[in-house]
């Protein structure tokens, strides 16, 4: 016995709603709550109104070059064999598999590759609806044989119900496997919607609840994902039932003039807990669940009308930009042509707003649409025509179904016609749209070959959506997926938009790890073997096509910019393109991107570029030489070419040629330096006035190369000094120091001969040499430098004449204060010529010195007295010469000059007796300061006498002390034994009693033989035998004291030089 729930509801149109208590909500209440409408609803309505205005102003035709948003793949595997003798009638998707029902009543469990997981026959007629629970364990099927069968894949639990009337739909409650009630709802041609669930604690048997009846057949029922709401469609419209309150909360009318649901089925889809999508014939209605204090209510927030019938509807993520979605569809599945209809979408109703729950994210609608044949079955009158007309209608071929994406604002974003097998024979009710399939689901991983576009390394190419769908036809299952970035590349390549395709490929390759090999070329990512319009989908091949296109269009600079991406590290490609640009006379466009390291090209390529620059832009030659490695081209060949251009530029006189000459010299300097020929680069660095010349010379030891360009080097430094305001005047010259420090490599004669035309530089050099070592100029080759013929002008007023120059002249001209020092320190000059030089310049002190050195002291003294009037200098001169006659002359000069007399009196010393000077003073001669001078003389002499007396006293005391010390040392004894050694031969002194040993007062003891002068043949007498001395037979040594004195005198006479040890010390030989 079944329990029937009384279900009475009030029928309202789309603008009115029914709450959970069946009370009609009047317009006044709607107006009060109008301010509570959600922002999303206002946005949706505003978009609809804007779309209506925009559609009026737009053309019916769409741009044929618009990129599709989806791609399609016919599912193969075992599926074609399964449908060879059977046809598909129902399809649903779970997280683990697809469930396919056929007209033969067989259920097939398949993966996305078409492989059969399981099959079983559950019905005797066509299966029209399938439902799978969230765990993919329970499968419910409904068939026109009147049965509902529910089976478990993991257990033996199953249910079968025979309603004895054809069924159209079935739905399991949310969390069916976890609930003990095992509730499900079903309906069919009997016109009743029934809810069945287990009863009692032990779940024995099922209770039956009649939810609705008496309004025609139940065509589809859908349970909200996890809520208490059940939506179903019958002949009159759509109703929504709340299982919590056990009441119908809303009723939505069937669209006016809608065709029969058995020909054009209604589709219900819960987008989420709050949104119900209704597709009925050519209408789409979007209903939103609202929550009020009295319970749930439903309102229609959007209504669209299409130009074709809807076979399936799914929510679809809103595309970011359909035009930028990736590439083309397989032509065997999707037609490249779209419907010629206008795709106009009309907003029909906008109900009063009400408070909402949290709105879901914005989505678009994915629609499977069907356009009836020209002999349309939409007209109800046509359905009542004769059998003959129906036969004609049945024979009218159908058009291909379309998959469309419609925005919430009513804008058609994409439309693709599907080429399904035998589509001419199928009607709208033969198609189904199932899904979505999450790419993270187990089912998605069963796709054997995800795509020809998928990378080989297993990484994922990003798409705009992670939802897949499946389209069912009686003979086909078509997998629908969002297009990825590589599809976008293929689409661009097909339309010869190679630049955009290359950019997209680079993004893909950058997102995938390990896409570049060691040569810098793009690896085959697994899809590189796929060709689109004859082009492999790799950066190199797409870029090659792009460059070819740009070159053919004459866009050479732009084409060159892509060559690094196209050629990578392939030298052959680089060389081919470089020669192509050269043939087209656009070599300058490719030069900036030519590689020099990775890869390194043939030398001919680089030398060709150098030759081009030499003839067109010398500045670029210099830049290239500095930037390019020098081992990639023949430096010697480039040097020859640059020299040739330099010679040509030197002939021309225009300013441009002069500028080119400077650049070419810089090129040669750089080339010689890089070619390890710094000596050849040095002249160019000097001509270019490079400040690093000295570092170049020192680092590369180029002193022998400098010897031929001494003057240029010094002039170069002089120019640098003029620009250096911070340099001190007395700071030594770096060039002169370099020449002086390296006279072994830079001969003095070479330097002097080159500096002769520039006396100042010559002076600086010779002066530095003299300061370093005066002996450097002491040789016969440099004496007086008389053999050097030069052209100089020692005075600015003089003209340049041929003359001979000496160091005296140089000092006189450029270092006047130091001339006297040079004259005193050097002897390698001609005194007469030196005097002549000084006389020409009236250099009195130097003339006095030279006259003194020449011996003409009187004349020198006369110059001091007459020209200088310097008493002290005259006295010093007389002292230096130590000539009494000169003093006499000085005294004669002083007799008539009181100032000189006083000066002599004040400064005269021991060289002249003051009385001699005083006696020469004439009576009556007035001498200012005479008294003071005389007092000074007396004081000086008194001081001198005092000093002499003091010194004498000290000398006497020291002499007495030393005399006493000597006497004490000579008269005192000292210790001596037989083992004492000779101070000369170091042998023992007492060798035998007869050997004579000499003892000196200086306390040195030596053998007599050692004290004799060598080579004179002198023999000393021997000592008498001690035994004979007692009988007076010992000779001279035995006659007492007088005999000993005589013997000592004889020995002293033969030695002759005293102590030999002290003698050697005095001579410095010991």
UniProtKB/TrEMBL annotation:
The lineage of its organism: Eukaryota, Fungi, Dikarya, Basidiomycota, Agaricomycotina. GO terms for cellular component: clathrin-coated vesicle; fungal-type vacuole membrane; Golgi apparatus; HOPS complex; late endosome. PROSITE patterns: CHCR. It comes from Lentinula raphanica. It is found in: Cytoplasmic vesicle, Clathrin-coated vesicle; Late endosome; Vacuole. Residues 982-1062 form the RING-type domain. The keyword Nuclease does not apply. Residues 1-67 are annotated as: Disordered. Belongs to the VPS41 family. Required for vacuolar assembly and vacuolar traffic. This is Vacuolar protein sorting-associated protein 41. Residues 25-67 have a biased composition (Acidic residues). CHCR repeats lie at residues 736-903.
């Amino acid at each position: 016995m079944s329990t029937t729930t009384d279900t009475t509801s009030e029928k309202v149109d789309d603008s009115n709603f029914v709450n959970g208590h069946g009370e009609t909500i009047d317009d006044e209440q709607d107006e009060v709550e109008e301010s509570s409408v959600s922002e999303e609803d206002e946005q949706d309505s505003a978009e609809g109104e804007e779309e209506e205005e925009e559609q009026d102003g737009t053309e019916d035709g769409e741009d044929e070059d618009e990129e599709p948003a989806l791609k399609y793949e016919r599912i193969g595997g075992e599926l074609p064999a399964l449908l060879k003798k059977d046809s598909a009638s129902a399809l649903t998707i779970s997280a683990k598999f697809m469930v396919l029902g056929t007209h033969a009543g067989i259920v097939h469990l398949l993966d996305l590759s078409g492989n059969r997981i399981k099959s079983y026959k559950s019905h005797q007629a066509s299966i029209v609806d399938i439902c799978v629970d969230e765990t993919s364990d329970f499968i419910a099927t409904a068939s026109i044989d009147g049965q509902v069968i529910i089976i478990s894949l993991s257990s033996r639990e199953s249910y079968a119900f025979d309603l004895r009337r054809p069924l159209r739909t079935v739905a399991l409650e949310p969390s069916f496997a976890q609930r003990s009630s095992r509730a499900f709802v079903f309906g069919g041609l009997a016109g009743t919607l029934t809810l069945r669930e287990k009863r009692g604690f032990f779940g024995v048997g099922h209770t039956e609840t009649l939810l609705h009846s008496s309004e025609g057949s139940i065509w589809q029922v859908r349970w909200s994902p996890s809520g208490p709401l059940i939506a179903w469609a019958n002949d009159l419209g759509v109703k929504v039932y709340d299982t919590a309150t056990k009441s119908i909360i809303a009723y939505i009318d069937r669209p006016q003039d809608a065709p029969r649901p058995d020909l054009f089925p209604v589709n219900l889809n819960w987008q989420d807990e709050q949104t119900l999508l209704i597709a009925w014939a050519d209408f789409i209605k979007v209903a939103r669940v609202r929550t009020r204090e009295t319970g749930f209510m439903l309102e229609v927030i959007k209504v669209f009308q299409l130009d074709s019938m809807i076979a399936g509807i799914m929510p679809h993520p809103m595309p970011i930009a359909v035009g930028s979605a990736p590439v083309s569809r397989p032509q065997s599945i999707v037609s490249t042509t779209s419907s010629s209809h206008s795709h106009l979408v009309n907003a029909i109703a906008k109900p009063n707003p009400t408070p909402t729950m949290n709105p879901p994210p914005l989505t678009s609608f994915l629609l499977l649409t069907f356009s009836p044949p020209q002999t349309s079955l939409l007209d109800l009158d046509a359905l009542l025509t004769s059998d003959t007309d129906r036969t004609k209608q049945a024979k009218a071929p159908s058009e291909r179904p379309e998959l469309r994406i419609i925005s919430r604002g009513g804008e058609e974003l994409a439309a693709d016609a599907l080429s399904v097998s035998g589509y001419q024979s199928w009607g709208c009710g033969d198609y189904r749209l199932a899904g979505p399939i999450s790419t993270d689901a187990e089912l998605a991983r069963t796709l054997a070959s995800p795509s020809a576009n998928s990378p080989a390394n297993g990484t994922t190419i990003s798409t705009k959506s992670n939802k897949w769908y499946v389209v069912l036809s009686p003979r086909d299952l078509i997998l629908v997926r969002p297009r990825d970035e590589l599809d976008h590349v293929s689409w661009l390549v097909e339309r010869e938009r190679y630049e955009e395709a290359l950019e997209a490929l680079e993004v893909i390759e950058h997102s995938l790890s390990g896409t570049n090999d060691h040569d810098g070329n793009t690896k085959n990512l697994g899809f590189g073997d796929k060709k689109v319009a004859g082009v492999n989908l790799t950066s190199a091949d797409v870029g090659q096509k792009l460059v070819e296109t740009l070159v053919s269009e004459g866009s050479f600079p732009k084409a060159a910019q892509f060559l690094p991406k196209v050629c990578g590290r392939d030298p052959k490609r680089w060389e081919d393109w470089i020669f192509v640009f050269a043939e087209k006379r656009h070599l300058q466009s490719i030069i900036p991107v030519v590689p020099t390291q990775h890869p390194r090209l043939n030398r001919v390529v680089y030398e060709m570029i150098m030759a081009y620059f030499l003839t067109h832009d010398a500045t670029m030659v210099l830049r290239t030489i500095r930037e390019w490695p020098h081992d990639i081209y023949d430096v010697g060949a480039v040097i020859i070419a640059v020299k040739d251009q330099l010679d040509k530029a030197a002939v021309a006189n225009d300013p441009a040629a002069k500028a080119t000459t400077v650049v070419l010299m810089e090129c040669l300097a750089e080339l010689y330096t890089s070619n390890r020929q710094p000596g050849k680069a040095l002249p160019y660095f000097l001509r270019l006035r490079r400040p690093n010349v000295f570092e170049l010379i020192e680092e590369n030891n180029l002193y022998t190369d400098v010897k031929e360009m001494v003057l240029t080097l010094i002039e170069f430094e002089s120019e640098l000094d003029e620009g250096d305001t911070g340099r001190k005047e007395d700071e030594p010259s770096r060039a002169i120091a370099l020449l002086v420090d390296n006279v072994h490599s830079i001969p003095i004669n070479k330097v002097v001969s080159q500096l002769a035309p520039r006396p100042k530089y010559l002076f600086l050099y010779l002066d530095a040499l003299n300061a370093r070592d005066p002996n450097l100029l002491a040789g016969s080759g440099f004496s007086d430098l008389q053999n050097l013929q030069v052209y100089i002008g020692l005075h600015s007023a003089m003209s340049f004449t041929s003359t001979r120059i000496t160091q005296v002249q140089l000092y006189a001209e450029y270092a006047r204060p130091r001339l006297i020092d040079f004259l005193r320190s050097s002897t390698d000059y001609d005194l007469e010529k030196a005097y002549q030089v000084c006389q020409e310049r009236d250099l009195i002190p130097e003339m006095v010195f030279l006259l003194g050195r020449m011996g003409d002291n009187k004349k020198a003294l006369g110059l001091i007295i007459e020209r200088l009037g310097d008493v002290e200098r005259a006295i010093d001169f007389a002292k230096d010469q130590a000539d009494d006659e000169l003093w006499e002359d000085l005294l004669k000069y002083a007799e008539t000059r009181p100032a000189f007399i006083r000066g002599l009196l004040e400064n005269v010393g021991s060289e002249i007796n003051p009385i001699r000077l005083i006696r020469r003073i004439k009576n009556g001669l007035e001498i200012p300061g005479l008294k003071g001078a005389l007092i000074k003389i007396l004081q000086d002499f008194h001081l001198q006498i005092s000093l002499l007396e003091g010194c004498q006293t000290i000398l006497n005391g020291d002499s007495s002390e030393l005399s006493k010390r000597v006497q004490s040392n000579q008269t005192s004894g000292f210790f001596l034994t037989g083992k004492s050694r000779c101070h000369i031969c170091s042998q023992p002194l007492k060798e035998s009693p007869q050997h004579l040993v000499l003892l000196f007062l200086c306390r040195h003891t030596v053998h007599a033989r050692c004290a004799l002068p060598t080579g004179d043949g002198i023999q000393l007498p021997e000592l008498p035998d001690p035994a004979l001395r007692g009988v007076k037979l010992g000779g001279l040594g035995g006659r007492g004291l007088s005999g000993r004195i005589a013997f000592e005198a004889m020995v002293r006479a033969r030695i002759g030089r005293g102590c030999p040890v002290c003698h050697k010390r005095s001579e410095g030989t010991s």
